[in-house]
Amino acid sequence: MVGTSPSGGGVQCHELFPFALHVLRGRWFTVFASFLIMTGAGATYLFGIYSKQIKASLGYDQTTLNLMGFFKDLGANVGVLSGLIAEVTPTWFVLLVGSAMNFAGYFMIWLAVTGKIAKPKVWQMCMYICIGANSQNFANTGALVTCVKNFPESRGVMLGLLKGFVGLSGAVMTQLYLAIYGNDAESLILLIAWFPAALSVVFVYTIRTMKLVRQPNELRVFYHFLYVSIVIALFLMVVTILEKQIVFSRTAYAGCSTVIWFMLFVPLFIAAREEVATWNLKKLPPSEVTVQTPEAIQPKQVESPPNSSLNQEKKQETSNCFANIFNKPERGEDYGILQALLSIDMLILFLATLCGLGASLTAVDNLGQIGESLGYPTRTISSFVSLVSIWNYFGRVFSGFVSESLLVRYKIPRPLMMTMVLLLSCAGHLLIAFPVPGSVYVASVIIGFSFGAQLPLLFAIISELFGLKYYSTLFNCGQMASPLGSYILNVRVTGLLYDREALKQLAVKGMNRSSVKELTCLGSQCYRMSFIILAAVTFFGALVSLILVVRTRTFYKGDIYKKFREVALVTTTGTDADSNPKAKN
Questions:
Q1: d(C-alpha 206, C-alpha 29), whole Å
Q2: First to last CA, the chain
């Protein structure tokens, strides 16, 4: 890798190996590795493809299948265990535990579906999928939390990008399984078992928290990552559309997968480019560095304000996990775990998340059965799932980048963006409740976009209101409302209403439940009442989030990133590169 530096030099041939080690230890390589780990962390969004296979091979009705869907959502969203483990163990341990859980959970499901083991009981299947889905919290905690701590002033952008790659993971893994296994939903479960686990193992030692430094060109680099991810998303969308029009051969799928994986490695070259300047600055004599840019090159600790010692004492008093539970600090300071969980702001976020994400998860989990009930072929149903995955990505990066821009430029509260996203989600639910030809395509786009947009907003709001000291635990606690909402809306509402309609259709034919192995409902009435309820619940969630907008409007009018600039090492070079290599070690 040859690059330029402020002195015009580059990386010499005999320096390639030391430079490669330098890149691997750099914080930009941590970002690249996190992108790949996130690419494998969205297996839960593929449930709509292989759920039909579970239902058919094990003879489940829709209520039982939705119960499995609830435990999938429970595992995917209750990440308190991973957060607490991350508080006391290194990041590599968190990633390895998640890798083992992912493989164990999904591999057992694959063995059950393929008949290689005796038919498990329902509670065992629920346990398997809960364990497998819970593994993604370990990937999130290991990669996502580490990157937010390494780039606190770009947290909205970082969260949008990382969760965006999670959104793309469904479409990426769909193409990969079609290339390796063909159109075989059973093999997709096997892919979900080994692929994310392998990614975490490969990059296990490259993800770690580093010393906080401030790099002026940081946002520009993130935009370069964004452009790459947009190209990947557009390519996946084009491929998805073409697959609906023509029949792809195994070779064509292999070619598409090769292109996708090449593009996924483009961020590595961006990371290496950023490390070239750092490498060359590291070789410069101190005197030469000082002569070039005496004020900018020399990293210096910004002088703290006069009352900083008082602030530190206040933080020490209030940031303990269990101390001063009801004596809460100001918004933006480091809350203790119980201080945050028992605050009114967190309770409002919990209720809005229960309504918004609970309804969105219900829609995504039932997408396969929705397509089946409306008479769409299997290949088209896979297209719906891919569309949700791709627009899930667009929602995540849009909410991350746009909310950050609106916050920095116009001081618009991030919770207001959440309100707008929930209102948009209502439209998607109503399109399924009252379907017209092609409306499921539009609904897939809207639901995917709004579902994706909610998560980066939720995680960013938690980090801004409650600080980063216990962020590993708090962001996992914040999404616990999602599986509760999923259980109420998916199992107790949507599943029961679907089965009721299916039993009505059997009764018309003079049959009962024991007459069929698989309980199936056909027609637009199967999900009409369910999605009217989902739309109403989501609208209520939007109204609840408005309360948080009012409560936090004064906080967001201030400079919420000021304290990070006061403690960061300011590093500005002629090439806008990070000139403090010691911060990476």
A1: 8
A2: 21
Q: Which CATH number characterizes residue 80's domain?
A: 1.20.1250.20
DSSP assignment of 160-210, as one string? HHHHHHHHHHHHHHHHHHHHHH-S-HHHHHHHHHHHHHHHHHHTTTT----
pLDDT at residue 322 in the model: 54
Task: Say if residue 344 is in the same domain as residue 447.
Answer: yes
Q: Does residue 296 surpass a pLDDT of 50? A: no
Same domain, residue pair 522 and 450: yes
Q: In the structure encoding, which two tokens stand for residue 247, read together? A: 């029949």
Give domain status of residue 187, yes or no: yes
Query: In 3-state terms, what secondary structure has residue 408?
Result: helix
Q: How far apart are CA 476 and CA 134, in angstroms?
A: 11
Out of 384-393, 395-404, 456-465, 526-535, least confident range: 384-393
Host H or E run for residue 327 = none
Cα torsion 79, 353, 485, 42 to 10°: value is -50
The DSSP secondary structure of 331-393, one letter per residue, reads TTS---HHHHHTSHHHHHHHHHHHHHHHHHHHHHHTHHHHHHHTT--HHHHHHHHHHHHHHHH
pLDDT digit string (tens) for 406-442? 998 899 999 999 999 999 999 999 999 999 988 999 9
- Residue 303 Rama label (left phi>0; alpha psi -120 to 50; beta): beta
Residue 310: predicted pLDDT = 39
Q: Name which of 230-234, 392-396, 578-582 the model is least confident about.
A: 578-582
